[in-house]
Amino acid sequence: MDKSFRKISKDKYIIAGIITFLIFSLGITLGMIIDNQRYSLIEEVNMEQEVNYLSLQMQHLYLNSFSAGDNCPVVETALKSAVTDLSDSLSEVIAYEEELDTKSKRKDLVMRRYLLDNLRYWILAQDSMSRCDFDIVPILYFYAKDCPSCPNQGTILTYFKEKFGEKVLIFPINLDFRNSEPMVQIAMEQFKVTKYPTLVINDKRYEGVVSREVLEGIICDSLEDATECQS
Q1: Low-confidence spans in the chain with pLDDT less than 50
Q2: Can you give the pTM of this predicted structure?
Q3: What is the CATH number of the domain that holds 170?
Q4: Could you tell me the residue range of the domain that residue 73 belongs to?
């Protein structure tokens, strides 16, 4: 009787252990499937951004080759739309990665890709401004994760992004990737960025948190026609 009871109890522990292992394995598998699906979606967004950028490059090349000035409004609309899509996608990716709070090769590559997208769209915006006289304000925003005042600057930038809409284009550059992405270091050296947060507007560097009042003045001085500045 005692031996049978011990055997049954032992069998129960074994079965319980097997069930626990299966549940644990299922949880890991589901987590991997969800992560893979999420990154597949990110890769699709990356491909879409690549096509959008190639389209903008082709439009820009067309303008340069044939001096088709009438096409400038089309390029401006496409540029603003692409930058808005990039910003929305980047926000989702950053939120997802911060939620995971893990390091991986794939995560690093995804974040570097978005960083490079921001830089090349900023370059295209700068060049388009001089060629087509776009009435926009491109802002390079250098920040870092361990920067205590950067969230405050980010909040101020978000405020103006919502207030001015497509007239203010913000391109965040994460300085945490300066050791893994050479373009970050190149941009930092070009604008002599040694502190963060740092904003670059019209090739001028603004170190530390730029207040709402000061930044609004800079934006309004940069725009030729902005009803948002008439107050």
Answers
A1: 5-8, 21, 29-34
A2: 0.69
A3: 3.40.30.10
A4: 52-224
